[in-house]
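Justification of resources, computational component.

The compute hours requested in this renewal are based largely on the per-chain cost of generating structure records like the one below. Each record pairs the submitted sequence with a full structure-token output. That output is archived, and it is also reused by downstream analysis tasks.
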Amino acid sequence: MSSRMSAWFTERVSIYRRKAETGWVAAGYELAGKIKAFIQPGGGTMGTTSGAVMPNATYDMFCEVAADVRRGDKVVDSFGRTYVVMSVPRDRGVSGIMDHLECAMELQNA
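The structure output for this chain reads:
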């Protein structure tokens, strides 16, 4: 079922999920699927890298509520930018109905 916001989901993005880990070696990521979404800049945060305070670029991704997106997934947009999903709230929105997901992400590469 499509939501009232589905007209906003104009970009096709790829979702990559970590493969099962065996022993001490992480097997990397594999394609989990492709979805239609809308990505926009979110509020920025500050983080520390090697003792220097650096801004973290944060973004919000809006997609269908049935999309299989999980915390830790990587999202690659049509421009090749890679984001890491930080949270996927699965509660009801302000309207009281859950008609879309709003995932918080951080930009992994610039």
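Strands lie at 11-18, 29-41, 45-49, 52-56, 58-63, 74-76, 82-87, 101-107. The chain has a mean pLDDT of 80.
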